Amino acid sequence: MCATLEKYVINGGNVLDGEVSISGAKNAAVAIIPAVILCDEPCRIENIPNISDVSLIGRILQEMGAEVKRIDKSTLYINPTKINSCSATSDLVRGMRASYYLLGALLGRCHQAKVCLPGGCNFGARPIDLHLKGFAALGARHELVNGAIIDVKSDGKLQGNHIYLDFASVGATINIMLAAVKAEGQTVIENAAKEPHIVDLANFLNSMGAQIRGAGTDTIKIRGVDFLHGVTYSIIPDQIEAGTYMCAAAATRGRVLVNNVTPKHLESITAKLREIGCEIKEFDEAVLVDATVRPLNRCNIKTMPHPGFPTDCQPQFATLLCTVDGTSIINESVWDNRYQYVSELTLMGAHISVEGRLAIIEGGSKLTAAPVKATDLRAGAAMVIAGLCADGVTEISSIQYIERGYENIIEKLNALGADIKKVYYDHTTDSSLRA
Ligand code: EPU
Questions:
Q1: Residues 294 and 277 sit within 8 Å (Cβ to Cβ)
Q2: Tens-place pLDDT, residues 299-329
Q3: Which of 1, 23, 171, 267 gives 20 to 30 Å between its CA and that of 30?
């Protein structure tokens, strides 16, 4: 049987130099698209990244009866008025993490939601107890059907309430916001997540007539409204895609102008790049990363909820730290198992030991090409950066993870001077690859 898969082939050693334009934020798009379910009229969403997670959530909305059309490369038209179901239980739903936003959105729209347990990247337990606790506080009870489908419902309208989150969970904050937008009275979320895409979602909902205050702070207040009108809204630039190109520029000792970004969202990454010796210049909507000025040195990193250093940039920064002299220590405080890429980097000659939430990187040894795999989205981005730095030709398999979140990564990197291509192979005959 012929089984064709895709892989990236990188001829390493080129220094990145030039300009790259960042796409719309994946994690904002995958929240804002389901949020349209709450709207009483059609919407146009601009600056949508062309990535597989976005196509998937669009198809899920279509399955529910919404009209979803791509008007141009980065604009989606969504008409939610024809949605005729409050369940999302197809295989598509299982294919992505953010499908859990359908719970909050459908609950807000029809006071009931039946949604498959979400899939997505695997880095340890990914519970949704805080989401469910929030729904319960608003008056919705839930049950797990056949161990696979979450059924949440309320008797009539949800009732606003005061909710304290034990952890500033991005997903729980978003889901509770979605459920509360049309609830009766006021909902207050304490210890809310403050990530840029939380603010983007609140701005989107407010532009439709929602009444949300405090997004971007620890306390979000939502006063329920009855009607949301259609809007045209443009999604923020992707903080993590930008951070990935910033790390890639530094790792190859290059000089790259990263365009279409919000520099404020990048401050924690910028601070760490400056600490290791990069020159960073900030413009209104761009940052210049220059790693040609002096030798780079080690640093320590602790991942934290925003405005701390983002966990989604941890694997990429760790790869950069493999290329500099000295011992760096990473403390991953958000996820309990986000070091699956370490064994792949080790195959390329990196010296990293993992002890619980810490990774100790002995930097400075030259990375060498090897067949590696993307174990998840950001781990895949880390493999790409490693391949760009390595001597020889690196082949990366399981690239479907990378394409969940990086638009045109091949074109963008090659325009900066990289030598990377996508090739198709038959995994039943190509034994060099680790599919
Ligand atoms: N947590 C709980 N209970 C919950 C929810 C979360 O214990 O009900 C814990 C998690 O186990 C984890 C921590 O809280 O240890 C953070 O989880 P959070 O809910 O903040 O993460 P998420 O909403 O599932 C989003 C992003 C992730 C990103 C995290 C943290 C989306 C679709 N996903 O996930 O992005 O790592 O926030 O910033 O927005 C990625 O883009 O590669 C990615 C994985």
A1: yes
A2: 999 999 999 999 999 999 999 999 999 999 9
A3: 267
